[in-house]
Specification:
- The complex is a heterodimer of chains A (about 325) and B (about 280).
- Chain A has about 325 residues and is an alpha/beta fold.
- Helices cover about 45% and strands about 15% of the residues of chain A.
- In chain A, strands 1, 2, 3, 4, 5, 6, 7 and 8 form an eight-stranded mixed beta sheet that branches.
- In chain A, α4 packs across α13 and α6 runs parallel beside α8.
- The longest helix of chain A has 20 residues.
- The radius of gyration of chain A is 20 Å and the shape is globular.
- Chain B is an alpha/beta fold and about 280 residues long.
- Chain B folds into two domains: about 50 residues, no CATH class; about 220 residues, 2-enoyl-CoA Hydratase, Chain A, domain 1 (Alpha-Beta Complex), CATH 3.90.226.
- Chain B has ten helices and ten strands.
- In chain B, α7 links the parallel β8 and β9.
- Chain B is globular.
- Bound molecules: zinc ion.
- The site of zinc ion has 8 residues of chain B, from loops.
Chain lengths: ~325, ~280
């Protein structure tokens, strides 16, 4: 896999190379290996404990970060992809399918980015068009019909801003998903694994549990877009990232996500398997809690959860 | 040389509405018009039917019987939860908006009757930070929907918005889910909801309540879309076709139920409300 590292992780990447070399060498000293691992983890914890919001954004977008299909292969069995919205076309930026999660039939839905340039173009950089959202909705409806839980993995820069997407009703597709998801009579578990890019993320994000990985982001607009509009200068993206409150801990404090899932030292891309284990455990725990509820109770709780979101005052004068 | 320029200090045409003064100039056909004539034509140009922007209050007074209404949740006020500052602090943008509009937020919830039929009418105010939707707009829209639900009264929402308000971050984004969930309940109870889209309606407002009406109708030539035209142009690096994202374009692509010119809007809405009204046998 080609490495596209970030400047602040250079030392970590060097250590990970050393660790990999030590692991593959037949006559390496186990104590030496352990020292390297400890050194890596200590440095990673130290570096990652003081990342700026802009650096977190870069980790969330990291080219080696596990994507939806990676999580599917690590966490689900018997995945069968379901293509197409039965109206216009298929959308490779949003993958849907049936699968088993720890033996249980579920549907899994997630944005998909590409690793190399060819894949990136094929996946439209993880930016769905209306047919992607409509495909996701019909697969969710099937899950509801057969009483199967829905697992959604969010990782998109946003819904595609293009002529064709507008012609086919990008806004209507997103709006409809928001309304229909809020009334879906089966458990919905959402994990933001990378980029939670605005309405294009939320369109598969109305769940009973919404969790976010430690270095993932969720935002009303990209820092670049915000900088271009409010500062009239896209180079202010770093400042905008700070102001937008898009990090996992900030979202938790604002009551917009239910839990922050810790990532392995150095981020999810440093150890995808470990990241997947955390995601899997949190999905399993959420499902076991939610599957005890009647559909009526489930819907009431989901409504109340989003109903509470928002901060305002009643001040007569400020 | 245009004669009127010398005689009357015509206000520079702006997108805010019909400027003050005896004479006004149409933003579209550039004709100099008697202000009185424009106002009598529901703030539309008598020559070319250009729709001047209305304030939320003007809109309500134009639509409800005798312009009479009760306002709700007028005291809900934004809280600046992120302590947001860009080139200006959000707090001072809010102060300026309070002063210029006399409102606490970009949305008025009203209740009155139309053709004698009780209705909850919510209208967005573009002059309040571009009609953007933060926590308070989200809360007011949700409460309007819930009032309509509890009282079993039809709902009309009139959009005019640049989308979600950036200065409240993801809190603004989540209002889309909150509002849409409330609309799901209205939908399940078969209480009618008519969405009226006006110039401009984009972003998170289009991608939530504006596109979820039993009827989605628009004024002519309104800019309506998910992504703004400039963002699309930058993404595809091409010039956008003429009329792209205007009401007529959406109608052609099957995304709107009808275009309704403003002078016919009240009549259209009353006719629809009558159609939706439960029949005698059901009551
Ligand atoms: Zn005109």
């Amino acid at each position: 896999m080609a490495f596209e590292g970030l400047d602040f992780e250079e030392a970590l990447v060097a250590l990970r190379k050393e660790i990999a070399a030590a692991r593959s060498s037949p006559d390496s000293d186990p104590d030496h290996l352990q020292r390297l691992v400890d050194q890596h983890d200590a440095l990673a914890r130290e570096l990652f404990s003081r990342l700026t919001a802009w650096q977190v954004t870069q980790v969330a977008r990291h080219a080696n970060r596990p994507y939806t299909l990676d999580y599917i292969s690590m966490l689900f069995e018997d995945f069968s992809e379901i293509h197409g919205d039965r109206s216009f076309g298929d959308d490779p930026a949003l993958v849907c399918g049936t699968a088993l999660f720890r033996g249980q039939p579920v549907v899994v839905i997630g944005h998909q980015k590409g690793r190399d340039m060819k894949q990136r173009i094929y996946r439209n950089f993880g930016q769905p068009k209306p047919e992607g959202y409509r495909k996701a909705l019909r697969v969710m409806k099937m899950a509801e019909k057969f009483a199967r839980p829905i697992i959604c993995l969010i990782d998109t820069p946003g819904a595609y801003p293009g002529i064709d997407a507008e012609e086919r009703g990008q806004a209507e597709a997103i709006a409809r998903n928001l309304r229909e998801m809020s009334a879906m009579r089966v458990p919905i578990v959402v994990v933001v694994t990378g980029e939670g890019g605005s309405g294009g993320a939320l369109a598969i994000g109305v769940g009973d549990r919404v969790m976010i990985l430690q270095n993932a982001i969720y935002s009303v607009i990209s820092p670049e877009g915000c900088a271009a509009i409010l500062w009239k200068d896209a180079r202010m993206a770093e400042t905008a990232a700070e102001k937008l409150g898009l990090t996992a801990s900030k979202l938790l404090a604002l009551g917009l996500v239910d839990a922050v899932l810790p990532e392995p030292p150095g981020g999810a891309h440093a150890d995808p398997q470990a990241a997947a284990e955390t995601v899997g455990a949190s999905i399993a725990k959420s499902l076991s809690e939610l599957q005890r509820l009647t559909p009526a109770k489930l819907l009431d709780q989901r409504y109340e959860k989003f109903r509470r979101m928002g901060v305002f005052t009643l001040a007569a004068e400020s | 040389m245009d004669w009127s320029k010398k005689r009357t200090p015509l206000q520079a045409p702006d997108k805010k509405g019909v400027p003050e003064g005896l004479w006004v100039r149409c933003n579209n056909c550039r004709e100099a018009l008697f202000r009185k004539q424009v106002v009598e034509n529901m703030n539309c140009c008598p020559k070319c039917q250009y729709h001047f922007r209305l304030t939320a209050k003007e809109r309500i007074e134009m639509l409800l019987d005798d312009g009479v209404f009760e306002e709700y949740d007028a005291d809900l006020t934004p809280a600046d939860p992120l302590n947001f500052t860009d080139l200006k602090p959000y707090a001072s943008r809010l102060k300026a908006a309070y002063a210029s509009t006399g409102l606490r937020e970009a949305f008025i919830t009203s209740r009155g009757t139309m053709g004698g039929i009780p209705v909850v009418l919510g209208v967005m105010e573009y002059n309040f930070i571009g009609g953007s939707m933060g926590s308070v707009v989200g809360e007011k829209v949700t409460r309007a929907i819930e009032m309509s639900l509890t009282e079993k009264i039809p709902l009309i929402l009139i959009s005019c918005s640049g989308g979600a308000r950036m200065m409240e971050g993801a809190l603004s984004l989540m209002q889309m889910a909150k509002i849409s969930a409330a609309l799901a309940r209205l939908h399940a109870e078969a209480i009618p909801y008519i969405s009226v889209l006006t110039d401009p309606t984009t972003g998170g407002v289009t991608a939530s309540f504006a596109m979820l009406g039993d009827l989605n109708i628009a004024e002519p030539k309104a800019l309506i879309g998910f992504a703004g035209p400039r963002v699309i142009e930058q993404t595809i690096r091409k010039k956008l076709p003429d009329g792209f994202q205007r009401s007529e374009f959406l109608l052609e692509h099957g995304m709107l139920d009808a275009l309704v010119p403003r002078p016919q809007m009240r009549e259209y809405l009353i006719r629809s409300l009558r159609w939706f009204r439960p029949t005698e046998s059901k009551v």
